[in-house]
Amino acid sequence: MGNTDSDSWVRVYRQVPEGLRLFCFPHAGGAASYFYPWSRSVPGDVEVLALQYPGRQDRAGEPHARSIPDLADRIHTAIRPLLAEPFAFFGHSMGAILAFEVACRIAREEGTGPAHLFVSGRRAPSLVRHEELHRASTSALVAEMRALGGTNPRVLADEELLNLVLPTIRADYTAIETYRFDSAPPLSCDITAMVGDGDPKASVDDASAWSRHTLGRFDLRIFPGGHFYLEDCRAGVLDAIVSVLSRVRQDAGSR
User: What is the pTM of this model?
Assistant: First the structure.
C-alpha cells in the first residue's frame, strides 16, 4: 500500500504556527506543487497544505491508486494527526471528490470534520455519468488533456515526458471515472462550490447540486473560464477562499 505517514502525503510549503490549515487536493494528473503559488498568496494566518498522491514527482516510484475509496482511506489515515481544528478542505476536479470523501470519513469515524469544504470544477457526487476516457487511446487522452488545459503544453509535445506522466493520468482517470457515490449522509460543514462558466466537465447546474450534500450553508461562485478557470482567476478564487476562512477563524474565536 505504500507509506501512509503524513510526511509522504502532505507538503507544507510555508509553516504558520497556530494558523488555520487549508488542505488542498489536486486534480487528476496533478501534484502537490500545483498549490505552491497559493502558499505565497494567502494571508499569514492560513497554512496551505497540499496532498501528494502516490505515483508522481517525489512519489513516482510508488504504485498508483486506482480507486477513490482506497485513496480517500489512505489520505484520511495520513492527515488525521494534522487535523487541528478549525481546518478546511479545497479540492479541484478529482480533488473535489477526494476532499468530500475524506470529509465524510472524518465525520463518520470522528464525529467532526472540516469547518468548510471548497469544491471546484466538479459535479456533485450524486450526479452519475458514464465515462470511459481511462480506456481510450493515448491520442484521445492527450486530446482531452490539451482541451481542458492544466497540463504544460511542453509535456504534451514531448513524447518522452508524455510517456512519464501518462500512467499517472490514466490511473487517476480510472479512479475518478469508476467512482460511484455511496449515499453518505450530508455533511454538517458549509460548502462553497466553484465553477468556470465554460467548463465542459462541470456545468453551473452540476456545481449547484453540491447543495444536496450539506446541512450547512451552501454558496456557489461562478468564474469566467473553462475547467482550469482557477489559473486565470487565481486572485478571485483566493479572495473568495480567504474571505470564508476569515469568517471561520472569527467563528472559532467566538466559541
Answer: 0.92
Helix (H) / strand (E) element for 36: namely: helix 36-39
Cα–Cα dist 90/216, whole Å: 17
Respond yes or no: is residue 254 known to be catalytic: no
Q: Residue 93 catalytic?
A: yes
What are 122-170's pLDDT values in tens digits? 999 999 888 877 777 877 888 887 877 777 777 777 778 878 888 898 9
Please give the sequence-ordered ranges of beta strands (E in DSSP) within the chain, or none if there are none.
Answer: 10-12, 20-25, 46-51, 87-92, 116-120, 190-196, 218-223
Residue 43's nearest CA partner among 193, 220, 248, 225 is 248
Give the Cα separation of 196 and 187 in Å (integer).
24
What percent of the chain has a predicted confidence (pLDDT) above 90? 67
Residue reference for cell 450553508:
217
Collapsing DSSP states into helix, strand and coil, what is residue 196? Answer: strand
Q: Is the pLDDT of residue 78 over 90?
A: yes
Q: Is 68 helix (H, G, I), strand (E, B) or coil?
A: helix
Q: How far apart are CA 146 and CA 64, in angstroms?
A: 22
> Of 27, 64, 213, 227, which residue is the catalytic one?
227
Cα–Cα distance measured from residue 223 to residue 76, given in angstroms and rounded to the nearest whole number: 30
Q: Which of 27, 64, 93, 116 is catalytic?
A: 93
